[in-house]
């Protein structure tokens, strides 16, 4: 059993899509074991996405992530990291498969509704970034 960090991004919280997105996770067999709605500062968004700091879209990405509340959550299940990324779909919604979250809800490659950890090591780091041990049962 594995855990991964998921974020429902501002474009999706603004459109009141949290429940529809969570239904996709649960239908895929992922269990939401922790969840909270927070508003990131520019500094916190910058730190979370530090791996992308040399990419041309970094500034835009941080501004977007700090523009409105996000829902951060821990998803649990068999192969949760890969399964979550499958349910999310490709980064660019134009390339996402039918039925995926990004195909159905994303507005653009930047405003693409969800984040999901990409490997076991980053999942552990990203979960610890948002949640304390006490919040994880
Ligand atoms: P995430 O890390 O959010 O789960 P991902 O792993 O599919 O998404 P990354 O390559 O890690 O994609 O990019 C991180 C985020 O940066 C993307 O989800 C998207 O919001 C933004 N992004 C990526 N590429 C672009 C781009 N070409 N233009 C604008 N924003 C982009
Ligand atoms: Mg990524």
TrEMBL record:
Residue span(s) of domain Nucleoside diphosphate kinase-like: 1-137
Enzyme class: transferase
Cofactor: Mg(2+)
Subcellular location: Cytoplasm
Binding site residues for ATP: 9, 57, 85, 91, 102, 112
Known catalytic reactions: a 2'-deoxyribonucleoside 5'-diphosphate + ATP = a 2'-deoxyribonucleoside 5'-triphosphate + ADP; a ribonucleoside 5'-diphosphate + ATP = a ribonucleoside 5'-triphosphate + ADP
Active-site positions on this chain: 115 (pros-phosphohistidine intermediate)
Any Pfam family hit: NDK
Keyword tags: ATP-binding, Cytoplasm, Kinase, Magnesium, Metal-binding, Nucleotide metabolism, Nucleotide-binding, Phosphoprotein, Transferase
Gene3D superfamilies for the chain: Nucleoside diphosphate kinase-like domain (3.30.70.141)
Documented EC number(s): 2.7.4.6
Function description: Major role in the synthesis of nucleoside triphosphates other than ATP. The ATP gamma phosphate is transferred to the NDP beta phosphate via a ping-pong mechanism, using a phosphorylated active-site intermediate.
Family: Belongs to the NDK family.
Subunit structure of this chain's protein: Homotetramer.
Protein name per its UniProtKB record: Nucleoside diphosphate kinase
Species in which this protein is naturally found: Albidovulum salinarum
Origin organism lineage: Bacteria, Pseudomonadati, Pseudomonadota, Alphaproteobacteria, Rhodobacterales
